[in-house]
Amino acid sequence: MTTYRPTSARVTPRATVPGATTTTLWILRILTGIQATMLLAQPVLAGRFLDGHFPALSTHGSNGLALTGFALLVVLAAVLAWRPGRLPAWPIALACVCSFGPPVQLGMGYSRQLAVHLTLGVSLVAAGLALAIWAWWPGRARRSYRARRPRAMVDGGARVR
């Protein structure tokens, strides 16, 4: 029986990132940036309403309704960044939280359940900002790119492709 010494085939990081990673990352960045802006506008609009500017309440509701639909686009962008883009899968879970929260948030707001509405609102803003900060972190594509692993040596050192 012959044993072969394992080769140390190190995969060096590429200087450039493949197109699928950068394209899907930029889509995710843009969508999470818009979502974070919309999420940050919600407490401002609620504060304006509490300050006496009553039309801000209808804008607050319209923005919440728009967030409900827009969050689905962020989930789709996170899935695309994961599969063809080779980014981690955990942002999909955070995007799903940001997607399932706004309908509950709308229901609690319209039914005047303010204890749940405010608590869930703070959680949604924190989750949306965390997702946007992760996506916009400098060098994200370079560090998140998963290079292909070298294949195992089979049949006396001949590579199976």
* Silhouette: elongated
What can be said about the biggest beta sheet?
A: none
Indicate the percent of residues in helices.
Answer: 55-70%
Structural class: mainly alpha
State Rg.
22 Å
How many DSSP E strands? 0
Number of helices: 5
Average pLDDT over all residues: 82
Order of helices and strands: HHHHH
Quaternary? single chain
What are the segments in which pLDDT stays under 50 over at least 5 consecutive residues? 12-17
Beta-strand residue percentage: under 5%
Provide an overview of this structure.
By secondary structure, the protein is mainly α. Helices cover 68% and strands 0% of the residues. It has helices spanning 19-50, 55-82, 90-110, 114-136, 140-144. Helix 1 (19-50) packs antiparallel against helix 2 and helix 1 (19-50) runs antiparallel to helix 4. The longest helix has 32 residues, at 19-50. The two termini are 24 Å apart.
Question: What is the strand and helix layout of this fold?
Answer:
Layout: H1 19-50, H2 55-82, H3 90-110, H4 114-136, H5 140-144
Helix pairs in contact: 1-2, 1-4, 2-3, 3-4
Question: Could you provide a short overview of the structure?
Answer:
The chain is an all-alpha fold and 161 residues long.
Essential attributes:
mainly alpha, elongated
